[in-house]
């Protein structure tokens, strides 16, 4: 699973991703995690795997199938990688199946019963028939396999039933059909009437199985068999490169073309008869590089993320209400507060409403002349966009850079773009060939210094309730000037721009990070304080991996909190002895990127949008900012230190995929997210 990059070990990104997703599966199996939260982790694991096959496995499949001789080595590597991933996937599928069975049994002990179509009482069957007639009739329409050439019109977000039907008098000469489960109509799980303390649910799959006589009513069939299957398509869009088409039109065409991506993974009920399975696979047109896997009775467990709580709040995490910081509350102007002193919020511990209020005040204040912002993902009912539209209508000059190629959000971003344009906002559709992934805002002021907000995460209310992200709000002229220059760069990417304070990719970010690592090596050799502490989502860039190995060889202590992909291999004698990596899976998704360098004793702290991956450092517009305010520097360091100390939710990342938990001997296990929340609650009580 390891490949050599230069002279150092390097774990392939996609293998490390499989190890990461297994950490989520581990969380679903831990007894101390509330039962319904464990269900949610099963859903997250399944959803992640779907996206992985749509995107990463799709890319590897295309490389493996490449017939160009000049790409022969890449093609061979892709084939080997696909086999490695398939082996891991087969192993994890078994673990996943055991986890589903185990959690389902524990639900029964809590009087929550997931019934199959063979377990229901006559009264429950009557309820199901009534439910079908009132909610599902007309939503479930079979398609005969014999009448379609392929299944290229199917949506891989959904689950399908392959159905075999026959008539008594025909000596079981069968007809074959398939139907799509209408999950969007009523959800995946249907609540049946309670019986005392007992809560009953059914998969929609089983509801339809019960109602097949109604689905095929009037056709004379007397025998019905139904088995689930699902498939995952290649999600890579074929963007039209016609120079006469506008960017919007290209994206819209690309979104449409995705529906016809080739299936590259098929999961099916292992009890499906061979004659029925043959028809499914033939219509899906799978080939030898695609994954075809027998599975259990139910597919698409991503729906566990929306499993009904059954009025059992005690089986979920206790509520941690978002903290509205006192220093960012009250009647005084937030813009003026930021002009006087740098501010920060750390969501979801702190309320994202503080940033919304900054935008709303900017929209109304007569002291504000302009607002510029980059948008990557947006909430369905975005308060951010509503504030920007209000600002435009109040005569402010509003500029929005929106990334139309934010994967799986393209259509939504196109719709928002049109609404903003209609309101008079100047909308810029990113940079040709570069995704704009930076999270920055610039507010132009009539009096006093301008203001900038630089975040590690999206300006998205939904994300801010689930993802841990930090936002710096500053009026520091040197930072604000650079933020404004980023917008100039986006508009004119071929005009050379020097950033004095910010680290900006694809310009000089990688080189500046490398220079910071080299300084640590020099300081270590000179006997000065030397260490690197980083919290990041992914580290896969070969050059950055090599530089960290070089620093370790020089004796620089390197402590990393890496949530996802990690190509570093620790504990290699003489190479990575000084590298330690912790990975945290908990109630919130760890998303903030924070970089701390000893710098000979003067400590440099940075936050921003960029992971250490080639796509972030070379192919995207990313922004990382230094943090100068002493108090905020300490807060950013605290976040990293807590992450490194986490022994309850942390796993040891070493390149093996074992995801070992930390050994806890005498002391109490430390949970970083809980400790941070309690710290912020106590701190807020003291704020003025």
TrEMBL record:
Binding site for ATP: 48, 467, 563, 591
UniProt GO MF annotations: polyphosphate kinase activity
Catalytic residue list: 437 (phosphohistidine intermediate)
Highest taxon in the source lineage: Bacteria
Catalytic activity annotation: [phosphate](n) + ATP = [phosphate](n+1) + ADP
Domain called Polyphosphate kinase middle: residue spans: 123-307
Entry EC no(s): 2.7.4.1
Boundaries of every Polyphosphate kinase C-terminal domain copy: 334-493, 502-673
Protein keywords: ATP-binding, Kinase, Magnesium, Metal-binding, Nucleotide-binding, Phosphoprotein, Transferase
CDD domains the record matches: PLDc_EcPPK1_C1_like (cd09164), PLDc_EcPPK1_C2_like (cd09167)
Function: Catalyzes the reversible transfer of the terminal phosphate of ATP to form a long-chain polyphosphate (polyP).
UniProt family annotation: Belongs to the polyphosphate kinase 1 (PPK1) family.
Protein name per UniProt: Polyphosphate kinase
UniProt source species: Phocaeicola intestinalis
Encoding gene per record: ppk
């Amino acid at each position: 699973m390891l490949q050599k990059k230069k002279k150092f070990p390097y774990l392939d990104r996609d293998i490390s991703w499989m190890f990461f997703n297994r950490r989520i599966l581990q969380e679903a199996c831990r007894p101390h995690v509330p039962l319904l939260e464990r269900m949610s982790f099963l859903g997250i694991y399944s959803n992640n795997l779907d996206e992985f096959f749509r995107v990463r496995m799709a890319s590897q499949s295309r490389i493996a199938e490449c017939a160009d001789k000049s790409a022969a080595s890449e093609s061979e590597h892709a084939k080997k990688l696909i086999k490695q991933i398939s082996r891991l996937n087969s192993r994890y599928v078994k673990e996943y199946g055991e986890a589903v069975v185990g959690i389902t049994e524990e639900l029964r002990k809590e009087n929550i019963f997931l019934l199959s179509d063979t377990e229901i009482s006559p009264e429950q069957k009557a309820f199901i028939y009534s439910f079908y007639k009132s909610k599902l009739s007309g939503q479930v329409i079979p398609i005969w396999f014999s009448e379609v050439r392929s299944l290229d019109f199917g949506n891989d977000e959904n689950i399908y039933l392959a159905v075999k039907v026959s008539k008594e008098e025909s000596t079981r000469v069968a007809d074959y059909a398939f139907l799509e489960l209408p999950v969007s109509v009523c959800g995946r799980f249907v609540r049946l009437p309670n019986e005392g303390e007992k809560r009953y649910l059914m998969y929609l799959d089983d509801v339809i199985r019960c109602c097949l006589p109604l689905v095929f009513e009037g056709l004379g069939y007397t025998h019905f068999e139904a088995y689930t299957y699902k498939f995952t398509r290649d999600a890579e869009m074929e963007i039209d490169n016609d120079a006469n088409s506008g960017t919007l039109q290209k994206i819209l065409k690309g979104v449409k073309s995705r529906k016809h991506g080739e299936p590259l993974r098929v999961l099916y009920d292992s009890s499906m008869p061979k004659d029925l399975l043959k028809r499914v696979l033939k219509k899906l047109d799978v080939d030898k590089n695609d994954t075809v896997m027998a599975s259990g009775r139910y597919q698409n467990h991503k729906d566990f993320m929306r499993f009904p709580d059954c009025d059992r709040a005690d089986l979920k995490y206790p509520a941690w209400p978002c903290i509205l910081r006192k220093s960012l509350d009250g009647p005084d102007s937030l813009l003026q507060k930021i002009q006087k002193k740098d501010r920060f919020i750390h969501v979801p511990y702190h309320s994202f409403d503080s940033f919304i209020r900054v935008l709303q005040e900017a929209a109304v204040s007569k002291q504000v002349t302009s607002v510029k912002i980059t948008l990557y993902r947006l909430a369905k009912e975005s308060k951010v966009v509503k504030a920007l539209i209000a600002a435009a209508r109040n005569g402010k000059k509003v500029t929005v850079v929106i990334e139309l190629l934010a994967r799986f959000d393209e259509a939504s971003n196109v719709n928002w773009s049109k609404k903003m344009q209609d309101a008079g906002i100047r909308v810029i559709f990113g940079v040709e060939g570069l995704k704009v992934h930076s999270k920055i805002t610039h507010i132009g002021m009539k009096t006093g210094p301008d203001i900038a907000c630089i975040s590690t995460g999206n300006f998205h209310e939904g994300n801010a309730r689930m993802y841990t992200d930090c936002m710096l709000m500053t009026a520091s002229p040197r930072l604000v000037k650079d933020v404004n220059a980023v917008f100039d760069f986006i508009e004119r990417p071929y005009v050379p721009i020097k950033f004095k304070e910010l680290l900006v990719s694809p310009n000089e970010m990688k080189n500046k990070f490398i220079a910071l690592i080299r300084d640590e090596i020099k300081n270590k050799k000179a006997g000065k304080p030397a260490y690197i502490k980083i919290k990041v989502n992914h580290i896969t860039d070969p050059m950055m991996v090599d530089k960290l190995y070089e620093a370790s060889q020089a004796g620089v202590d390197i402590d990393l909190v890496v949530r996802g992909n990690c190509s570093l291999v620790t504990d290699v004698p003489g190479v990575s002895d000084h590298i330690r990596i912790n990975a945290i899976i908990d109630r919130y998704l760890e998303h903030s990127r924070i970089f701390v360098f000893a710098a000979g004793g003067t400590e440099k702290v940075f936050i921003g949008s960029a992971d250490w991956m080639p796509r972030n450092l070379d192919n995207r517009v990313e922004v990382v900012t230094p943090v100068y305010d002493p108090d905020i520097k300490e807060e950013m360091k605290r976040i990293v230190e807590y992450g490194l100390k986490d022994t309850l939710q942390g796993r040891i990342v070493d390149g093996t995929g074992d995801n070992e938990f930390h050994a806890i001997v005498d002391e109490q296990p430390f949970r970083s997210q809980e400790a941070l929340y309690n710290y912020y609650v106590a701190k807020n009580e003291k704020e003025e």
